[in-house]
Design brief:
single chain; 134 residues; alpha/beta; four-stranded mixed sheet; 4 helices; 8 strands
């Protein structure tokens, strides 16, 4: 059965530093789709972050590349299986050099965010499964 995937393409300043950052979060790099100017970060079976040097990223767009340290170009939200897993991943990101973002606690929904080394905002969220069931 076909399973749709998402490939999030992000412009980065230093591919090697970004690879190190994401591997410290526990993700793996797929060498088959990585090179000196890009890295394929496997987040799950259906989610891949493509970290592209700015010159490589420019090959895919005619638009200006946003300065993600001062401009919000996207908010990437990943689910987590528990509140503890939210904290675990965000704490790893902060230890790896990320910058802390907001914490949101609504009881049935809990999330924290961080900015990676290039200022891309990642939100990690847990939602109580019983609340989702309606």
């Amino acid at each position: 059965m076909y399973q749709q995937m998402i490939f999030v393409n992000l412009a980065v300043n230093d591919v090697d530093s970004s690879k190190k950052f994401f591997t410290e979060l526990g993700y793996t790099i797929n060498p088959q789709f990585s090179a000196d100017d890009c890295a394929s970060v496997v987040i799950s079976d259906t989610i891949v972050a493509m970290l592209l040097s700015k010159p490589r990223y420019k090959d895919f767009t005619t638009k200006e590349i946003a300065d993600s340290t001062t401009t919000s170009e996207t908010l990437i939200c990943l689910s987590a299986e528990s509140r503890e897993k939210v904290d675990e991943l965000v704490d790893k990101a902060l230890a790896a050099g990320g910058t802390a973002g907001k914490t949101q606690d609504y009881g049935m929904m809990y999330g924290r965010s961080f900015d990676d080394l290039d200022g891309h905002t990642w939100e990690i969220m847990w939602m109580d499964p019983t609340a989702v069931q309606g």
